[in-house]
Each structure stands twice: as structure tokens, then as C-alpha cells.
Write a structure and sequence with these properties.
Layout (H helix, E strand, L loop, with lengths): L24 H18 L7 H10 L2 H6 L8 H4 L2
Length: 81
């Protein structure tokens, strides 16, 4: 399949884009914005604290490296959280 052709389903027909894939990026952004605003109004939206943000920054790319046997190993106190 070359890059200009449309992917096909099992019957050889072109696949129809559905849901968010069929929408313009502006429309998707508008819908996502409404969801975020609604979550904040209800109080279910998550906001990172300074400590959570630091912890996430420290983790960085270490998780994939640990799975492959490279990178830092988890400390015993980190797994107790």
C-alpha cells in the first residue's frame, strides 16, 4: 500500500473515518475544552501539586528502561507508596 492510498477493510472498500478521526482538529479541541471545563466545575479534574510534578519529572523515561533491564531499579520505599 502506498502512502497516498486509503486503508481498506476486509472487503476491499475504503475505511470510513469515524468519531474524532473524522473531525477537524479545531472541532476536537473545542469538544475537549468543554470536557475539561465541565470536570473543573464538578471538581473531578486533577491538578498536579508541586510534589506530584517533581515526582513525575524524576521518573521521566526511567520506567521503560527498567522494564528492559536498564536504568535505575525501584527503591523499596518507592514501591511501598
Amino acid at each position: 500500500m502506498n502512502e497516498t492510498s486509503t486503508p481498506e477493510n476486509e472487503m476491499g472498500r475504503p475505511k470510513q473515518r469515524r468519531g474524532f478521526a473524522a473531525m477537524s482538529p479545531e472541532k476536537v479541541r473545542e469538544i475537549a475544552s468543554k470536557g475539561g471545563k465541565a470536570a473543573h466545575e464538578v471538581g473531578t479534574a486533577h491538578k498536579f501539586t508541586t510534589e506530584e510534578a517533581r515526582a513525575a519529572g524524576r521518573k521521566g523515561g526511567s520506567a521503560p528502561h527498567v522494564r528492559r533491564g536498564r536504568g535505575p531499579k525501584a527503591s523499596p520505599e518507592a514501591s511501598a507508596e
